[in-house]
Amino acid sequence: MAKAALKTASKKIAKPVKKPVAKAGSGTGAAKAKSSGQASGKDASRLIDQRIRELKGWRGETLARMRALILQTDPAMIEEWKWMGTPVWSHDGIVCTGESYTKVVKLTFARGAALADPARLFNSSLEGNTRRAIDIREGETVDASAFKALIKAAVAQNGAAKKK
């Protein structure tokens, strides 16, 4: 994979990692999520903090770094916790999700197929008509300015869709 915005030492295959969900009253000190496994605002932010701590190593560092870029790019971004343990960032609709697997941290853009990607960050879920994803493997770095441009474009796309 020789993408301009991603640098890697080797190709690896992704395998799902079981995502533990903090349960209300579990004694973990985590925010209490609704019984449906969903939360937003401060509760979601606490659950995302907990996920990052649980991941440890390169996956936790990568998810933390990408989250920081998302929140720096759009301070009005809303953090959510959906689908029994998936971090979600929204502004006028879902911008992207952050999933962790054994070999990749995956950032899936809900309307990514509609976004221009001149830096060619999207490297996964390329066959569909709606979503696009960025798979980040251990040792890879993502071009921060290109990623921020994708976040801005996704927020603008959501805003345009909302006005229709």
Question: What does this molecule look like?
Answer:
The chain is of the alpha+beta class and 164 residues long. It has a single domain (40-163), classed as Aspartate Aminotransferase, domain 1. Helices cover 32% and strands 19% of the residues. The chain is built from 3 helices and 6 strands, in the order βααβββββα. The protein has helices at residues 41-55, 57-73, 144-163, and strands at residues 39-40, 78-82, 86-90, 94-100, 104-109, 132-137. α1 runs antiparallel to α2 (57-73).
Q: What structural category do the secondary elements indicate?
A: alpha+beta
Biggest sheet character? 6 strands, antiparallel
| Record field, number of beta strands | 6
Structural domain tally = 1
Question: What is the CA–CA distance across the termini?
Answer: 38 Å
Q: What is the average of the pLDDT values?
A: 82
pLDDT < 50 stretches:
7-36
Q: How many helix segments? A: 3
Into which percentage range does the β-strand content fall?
15-25%
Q: Which strands sit side by side, in order, in the main sheet? A: 1-2-3-4-5-6
CATH architectural grouping? Alpha-Beta Complex
What sort of overall outline do the alpha carbons produce when their principal axes are compared? globular
CATH class descriptor: Alpha Beta
The helical percent reads 25-40%
Q: What string gives the helices and strands in order? A: EHHEEEEEH
The CATH topology comes to Aspartate Aminotransferase, domain 1
Report the C-alpha radius of gyration, rounded.
16 Å
